[in-house]
C-alpha cells in the first residue's frame, strides 16, 4: 500500500463527509428530526434538544465508498476487508433502527436491550466464522488471545469483545466531539499497527475511518451541528473491536481504547455502588458527566480525554511495533 493510496483514502473519506454533511443537516432540520435529550442528564444539555442526529449515516457511507474504491485500485478487497465492512454496516443498522425509533416516537428509548444484543451477537458470530475460516484456509494460527482456542471459547471472547466495545463507544458518546476525536486516535493507532504487519487492507479501512471522522468532526465539535447517534457510535465500537482482533492484538484495545474502558467502568461502578450501598461514587455517570457537574467545560473534558487517549495509543503502538 503506497503513501499515495493512504493520502487518497484519507482525503476521500474527509471530502465525502465534509461536502455532503450540510445537506444532511438541512434535511434533518427540515423534517424536525432531532435528538431527544435524557431527562436525567445535565440540565444544560437541554439546549441541545432538537440537534440533528444520525450523522453516522454519512460517515459510514464515506468509509464504505472509500474502502471499496481505494481497495479495488490497490487490490486490497480481501475477506477480512469485507467482514470489517459487514460489522460496520450491521452495527450501524442496529443503531439506525434504534435512532429511528427515538426520532419517530419522540422519546429517548429506542430498541429493547435484548433486540440490540441479539443483533450484535449475530454479527460477532458471523465475524468469527469468517475470520477463523480465512486463517485455517491459509494454514495460519491466530496469535494473541486467539491462541487460547479456535473453537467455541474464542467465539465467546469475540462476542464479548464486539458487543462490549460497541456499547462502550456508545456510552462515551455524550459530549460534542468526544467520540469523534477519540475514535480518530484509536483507528489511527491501528492503521499504523496494521501497516507495520503488512495488513494493508486493514490499514486502508482504518485510514478511511480516520478521514471520514475528521470530516465529521468539523460539524460535530462544540457546539455540535449534528450528532453521530447510536448508528455511528455502535458501528465505530464494533469495527474498532474487529480491527483489534484482525491485527492479533485484541487486548491492546484496553489501552488504545482506554477512554472507552474508563467510561464503561464508571457506569458499572456507579450502578454496583448504588445497588449495594445506596450511594453514588460519581456525581453522574458516564464519567464525562461527572466532570461536567464539577464545572469542567465540554472542551476541557474533550481535550483532557483525547490527551489521555493519545498518550495511551502512542505507548501501545510503540510497544507493539
From TrEMBL:
Record pathway: Cell wall biogenesis; peptidoglycan biosynthesis
How is the protein disposed in the membrane? Multi-pass membrane protein
Q: Which UniProt keywords apply?
A: Cell cycle, Cell division, Cell membrane, Cell shape, Cell wall biogenesis/degradation, Magnesium, Membrane, Metal-binding, Peptidoglycan synthesis, Transferase, Transmembrane, Transmembrane helix
Q: Which InterPro entries match?
A: Glycosyl_transferase_4, PNAcMuramoyl-5peptid_Trfase, PNAcMuramoyl-5peptid_Trfase_CS
Q: Name one GO cellular component term.
A: plasma membrane
A family per Pfam: MraY_sig1
Q: What is its EC number?
A: 2.7.8.13
Q: Where is the signal peptide?
A: none
Q: Which domain of life does this protein belong to?
A: Bacteria
Biological process annotations from GO: cell division; cell wall organization; peptidoglycan biosynthetic process; regulation of cell shape
Family, similarity comment:
Belongs to the glycosyltransferase 4 family. MraY subfamily.
- Listed PANTHER family: PHOSPHO-N-ACETYLMURAMOYL-PENTAPEPTIDE-TRANSFERASE, PHOSPHO-N-ACETYLMURAMOYL-PENTAPEPTIDE-TRANSFERASE HOMOLOG
- What name does this protein carry? Phospho-N-acetylmuramoyl-pentapeptide-transferase
Q: What taxonomic ancestry is recorded? A: Bacteria, Bacillati, Bacillota, Bacilli, Lactobacillales
Amino acid at each position: 500500500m503506497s503513501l499515495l493510496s493512504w493520502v487518497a483514502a484519507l482525503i476521500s473519506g474527509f471530502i465525502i463527509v465534509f461536502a455532503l454533511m450540510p445537506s444532511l443537516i438541512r434535511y434533518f432540520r427540515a423534517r424536525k428530526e432531532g435528538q431527544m435529550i435524557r431527562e436525567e442528564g445535565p440540565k444544560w444539555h437541554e439546549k441541545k434538544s432538537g440537534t440533528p442526529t444520525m450523522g453516522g449515516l454519512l460517515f459510514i457511507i464515506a468509509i464504505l465508498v472509500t474502502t471499496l474504491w481505494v481497495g479495488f485500485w490497490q487490490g486490497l478487497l480481501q475477506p477480512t476487508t469485507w467482514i470489517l465492512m459487514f460489522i460496520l454496516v450491521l452495527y450501524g443498522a442496529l443503531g439506525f433502527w434504534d435512532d429511528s425509533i427515538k426520532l419517530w416516537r419522540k422519546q429517548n428509548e429506542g430498541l429493547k436491550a435484548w433486540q440490540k444484543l441479539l443483533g450484535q451477537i449475530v454479527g460477532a458470530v458471523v465475524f468469527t466464522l469468517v475470520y477463523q475460516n480465512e486463517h485455517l484456509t491459509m494454514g495460519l494460527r491466530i496469535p494473541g488471545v486467539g491462541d487460547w482456542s479456535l473453537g467455541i471459547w474464542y467465539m465467546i471472547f469475540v462476542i464479548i469483545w464486539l458487543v462490549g466495545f460497541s456499547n462502550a463507544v456508545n456510552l462515551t458518546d455524550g459530549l460534542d466531539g468526544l467520540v469523534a476525536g477519540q475514535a480518530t486516535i484509536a483507528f489511527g493507532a491501528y492503521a499504523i499497527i496494521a501497516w507495520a504487519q503488512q495488513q494493508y487492507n486493514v490499514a486502508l479501512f482504518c485510514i478511511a475511518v480516520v478521514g471520514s471522522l475528521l470530516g465529521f468532526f468539523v460539524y460535530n465539535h462544540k457546539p455540535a451541528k449534528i450528532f453521530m447517534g447510536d448508528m455511528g457510535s455502535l458501528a465505530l465500537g464494533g469495527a474498532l473491536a474487529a480491527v483489534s482482533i484482525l491485527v492479533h492484538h485484541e487486548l491492546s484495545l484496553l489501552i488504545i481504547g482506554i477512554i472507552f474502558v474508563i467510561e464503561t467502568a464508571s457506569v458499572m461502578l456507579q450502578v454496583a455502588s448504588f445497588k449495594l450501598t445506596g450511594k453514588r461514587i460519581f456525581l453522574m455517570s458516564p464519567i464525562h458527566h461527572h466532570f461536567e457537574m464539577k464545572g469542567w467545560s465540554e472542551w476541557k473534558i474533550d481535550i483532557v480525554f483525547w490527551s489521555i487517549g493519545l498518550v495511551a495509543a502512542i505507548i501501545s503502538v510503540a510497544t507493539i511495533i
